[in-house]
Structures are given as C-alpha cells and as structure tokens.
Design goal:
By secondary structure, this protein is an alpha+beta fold. 52% of the residues lie in helices and 25% in strands. It is built from 4 helices and 4 strands; from the N terminus they run αααββαββ. A 4-stranded antiparallel β-sheet has the order 1-2-4-3. Helix 1 packs parallel to helix 4. It is elongated.
Length: 176
C-alpha cells in the first residue's frame, strides 16, 4: 500500500511541530544559562581585580552564590550527562505500547564536542501508519532534546495488511 501524500504531509507537520517545540523549550533555557554563566565570569573577574578591598569581597561572593543557585534552578532540557539507558527504555516502551513487529534499536556512536555530546540511535520496526505515527509522537514528546535525523518508510513484507517498514535515525543531546 503506497504512502498517501496526506500521511507524508502529516508526518512533515509533526516534524515541524517537534522542531518548534525544541526551539520554544530548549532555546530560552540555554540563553538564560549562557547569560548567567557570563554574569558569573564577570563577577569572578571583578573579584580578582578587587582582592585588596576586603569589604567588597563578601557581597560579591554572595552574588556568585546566588548566580550559581539561579543556574541550578534554570530548566534543563538537555541532560547533564549521557543518559542513554533512559532514552533506550523510553524508545522500547514506545515500540511496545503500539505492539510493533520486528523491532530493532541500535546505538551507533557518541560524539563529544566542547560543550555537549550527541548519541546517535537507529530504530527499525514494522507496523501500520497509526502505530508508526504514535511512536513518532512519543519520541517527539520526550522530556529531553531528541532530533529525528532521518525517517524512511517502505511497504513491509510481513503478513500485516498495509504495514510499513520504518527506519528512524535520531540524535539525543547531553552536556558534559
């Protein structure tokens, strides 16, 4: 059964909504953390330059403590370390919830950069369009930053009528 153009449009729309959610949820927190980190750096520089004036040290030290507390309270949508086990558990639960056939999840590689890391995961499964859409929605609603890098569909060779063979490659982000 060929994939209908409406289904592809719906899938594209859901991917667009996911990107919009990432921008709305992750970006403000990242900008706030960057601003707070800059304020901490500025406070440290002022402390280093004014060591001779002991009376100024105490209030500046309190400001640094307050800034650290504000960073800790800022919402974190990117985990502080690679929680691959949690990601794999959530993906397995999503596949099992829709009783998809021939499930396979493969962790590929973890790349580390200066301020973050990326774990790549590939999934393959077979099922009908509603189940496939449900799995993609669950991936989209994960509480961590996950990007769908590639999604491909083709007719499945199984006994399920109208089934799709789906391959998904996604990236999960974390900080060090």
């Amino acid at each position: 059964m060929p994939v209908d153009k409406r289904d592809l449009k719906l899938l594209g729309l859901s991917a667009g909504v996911m990107l919009l959610l990432v921008a709305v949820l992750w970006l403000p927190g990242a900008m706030e953390r960057r601003e707070l980190s800059q304020r901490i750096d500025d406070a440290k520089q002022r402390l280093a330059g004014e060591l001779a004036d002991v009376q100024l040290l105490h209030p500046l030290g309190e400001q640094v403590v307050q800034l650290h507390a504000a960073i800790d309270e800022a919402p974190h949508h990117v985990p502080a370390h690679d929680e691959l086990d949690h990601l794999l558990r959530r993906l397995t639960e999503a596949l099992d919830a829709f009783d998809l056939q021939q499930q396979e999840i493969v962790t590929e590689r973890t790349r580390r950069y200066d301020d973050h890391g990326v774990s790549t995961v590939s999934m393959r499964f077979e099922g009908g369009f509603p189940a496939t859409y449900g799995v993609l929605q669950q991936i989209e609603s994960m509480p961590r930053l996950v990007r769908l890098d590639r999604v491909s569909f083709e007719p499945a060779s199984s006994d399920i009528g109208g089934a799709l063979r789906v391959q998904v490659q996604l990236s999960s982000f974390f900080t060090d």
